[in-house]
Structures are given as C-alpha cells and as structure tokens.
Amino acid sequence: MQGSDNQYYLDHLPDGSSNVLGSLFLDYRCSVDSGHLVIYGHNGSGGRMLGLLKNYASQDYYRKHPDVILAFADVQYVCHIFSVRRVEADSSAYTLDLEDSAARKRYIRQAAAASIYPILDLEESCDGKERILTMSTCTGWGNQRLLVQALLQER
Hints:
Layout: E1 25-26, E2 36-40, H1 59-64, E3 67-71, E4 76-88, H2 101-113, H3 122-125, E5 131-138, E6 144-154
C-alpha cells in the first residue's frame, strides 16, 4: 500500500475501511525503484503487521533469521539485514535522498554502526550501489521506533 501521506494507512485497510491495525505501507515519497525503501507498520500483538520485528532485538533471533523476503507483484528480493536500531520518529534514519553512491555507502555504514549489536562487516561488501530496505514499527516507548534495515538483492 502507498498513500499520499504517511498517515492514512496507519488506521485504514486497502479497501478504505477503518482499522486500528491499519496496513503495511510504503513511504509516500518512495517508488518501488527507489534506492531506499521505507515500509511502515504497527507493532501488532502476536506478530501481526510488523510485530515480529521486535524479535530482532535479540541477536540470537537475528542469527537464526538474517534475511527477510520482500515481494512485489513482479519481483522478489532477498534482503540481508545489516542494522537493528531504535530511533526517534523524526530521525535522519528516514532520509531518502541517497541516490549518490557515496551518500548511500555513508548511510549504510552509519546505520550499521548504530545497530544495537554488530551484524556484518560492511567494509568489504558495501560499494554504495546497494538498495536499502527499512522496516519501521513503534516500540511503545513514546516517539521511539524500531528499525530493521536490510540490503536488497533481486532473487
């Protein structure tokens, strides 16, 4: 889902009906071809919506699940997680203007360094051409969000 802003699908389903859990949705500023895709969703109980992301607060869980799959209608991506972190809702982590490879490489390295635990060494593998997936959900602590970030590779 994608709306004209980042508010509508917080409490609406794809058919337009109101729902407290809303829908998973792509940041309104992104396109499916963007270098940085941001997907939002509530932290639903029982793992609903993006509720399973909170499991990534455990490094043991990450070790068992280092990848996520992102599927669009015509393509699937294997996404290798490189950062799990908590940020404020207005954080620069939501920056989308990363079309320049140097800016993207710098962003990836900073995000990896801010991870709550070390995930992978990006010095060798990061060239700045990677596409980034950021999954964002609330934490229940004020304005704080949990981000799980990954590098997209077409399947």
